[in-house]
Specification:
Length: 337
């Protein structure tokens, strides 16, 4: 069964390609390498023993997307990771984000809905909840006005998919990720942030490695037990496995509605200081960090209620925060060696 994975050489996409191949799916990975490296393809092949088909194409080009699906008209499902994801950059260059995250989505959906089987998994984000009123966050928590153009593209993306499913034979699962971290246990694939990392865990591992002088902890005056923000850090392989389960649900027509939404998190919130402590424990490194002012746009806390994913998908995150951080550290050491 042919599955197209857009953004298939990216952080979450590459780990998902591995899990799909492990389950016997025939994968075509698509990526324009705007935020990934072609070497990831060999990494996937090394882990699974099979090099997936790969096409270096830009999904912002409607004609190219049309041509791609003409050649792959036996596709039975698409997992759509391809997007730009830097929140700050989206504030500075909103049109880049609307073009990449919306136009590409529309073009892929246009082609997919022209095929007999239109199963679609979408990378959404907990960012759609903004600062939710109650924790842990359930899927029926209200969607808050987006703080950034990036966040807005996820909300608009969910709406585009919902409208399309109403009008066509599209079936879709929207997966709202909390904070994905870590790397494959082989340390052959992992996260490859370009430039200065914006996310906490790559900043921590790069600091421990000596690439950054110190980590800035953005604020310790939040209304949380230790004053630092709380997030739900989920290991990327757990996340990848959820995509396979979600896809199988669509392929076997077990979905209860044409569009279903699931939170993907661990269900446990960890503060920034708890992440630092856990990292120090697993790495044996003392981390150089300093408390600084809050970062604009940060919410106090976000962690998932995962009951729906646990019960309906039969999926549960299995990796602890310490294991996930250990894998991130192993990966960082490997790529710098
Ligand atoms: P990533 O940047 O590592 O992967 C995205 C991949 O898509 C990259 O390899 C990039 O080169 C490719 N790509 C981008 N635009 C493209 C285009 N026009 N044509 C073809 N390829 C294109 O990001 P990731 O962390 O793996 O995120 C995957 C998805 O999950 C994104 O949609 C992101 O918004 C979403 N998401 C990520 C996080 C996170 O913290 N990592 C959290 C929630 C949601
Ligand atoms: C985590 C915590 C920071 C860096 C972002 C996007 C979100 C989603 C995931 C895609 C926060 C603190 C961070 C640092 C720090 N992506 N921090 N020093 O902000 O929860 O979410 O990535 O959908 O949309 O906004 O993740 O890793 O940036 O931050 O103190 O150098 O670590 O303040 O509390 P965030 P993050």
């Amino acid at each position: 069964m042919k599955i197209v994975v857009t953004g298939g050489l990216g952080f979450i996409g590459s780990h998902t390609v591995v899990e799909l191949q492990n389950q016997g799916f025939d994968v075509v990975a698509v990526d324009n390498l705007s935020n990934s490296s072609i070497t990831v393809l060999d990494g996937i092949a090394k882990i699974t023993g099979t090099k997936p088909l790969f096409e270096n194409i830009d999904l912002r080009d409607k004609a190219v997307v049309h041509d791609f699906f003409k050649r792959h008209n036996d596709t039975v499902g698409v997992i759509h990771f391809a997007a730009s994801k830097a929140v700050g950059e989206s504030v500075e260059n909103p049109l880049l984000y609307y073009e990449n995250n919306i136009n590409a989505l529309v073009y892929v959906l246009q082609e997919l809905t022209a095929l007999p089987q239109a199963n679609f998994i979408f990378s959404s984000s907990c960012t759609v909840y903004g600062q939710a009123e109650t924790m842990p966050i359930t899927e029926d928590a209200s969607i808050q006005p987006a703080i950034s153009p990036y966040g807005n593209t996820k909300q608009i993306g969910e709406e585009i998919i919902t409208d399309t499913a109403k009008a066509t034979h599209l079936n879709s699962i929207l997966l709202r990720y909390f904070n994905p971290i870590g790397a494959h246990s082989s340390a052959i694939i992992g996260e490859l942030p370009i430039g200065v990392p914006q996310n906490l865990v790559p900043f921590i591992t790069q600091t421990a490695m000596g690439l950054r002088e110190k980590l800035s902890v953005f604020g310790n005056d939040y209304p949380t037990p230790d004053g630092t923000c709380i997030r739900d850090y989920i290991h990327v392989v757990d996340l990848a496995k959820a995509h396979v389960v979600a896809l199988q649900r669509l392929l076997t027509k077990q979905n209860a509605a044409k569009v279903e939404t699931f939170n993907l998190g661990t269900g446990t919130g960890s503060s920034v200081l708890e992440v630092i402590q856990a990292f120090e424990k697993v790495s044996g490194q003392k981390l150089n960090y300093q408390i600084v002012a809050r970062r604009e746009g940060d919410i106090t806390a976000a962690y998932a209620n995962t009951d729906k994913a646990n019960q309906v998908l039969g999926w549960k995150a299995e990796t602890s925060l310490e294991e996930a951080l250990a894998s991130a550290w192993q990966w960082e050491q490997k790529i710098r060696s």
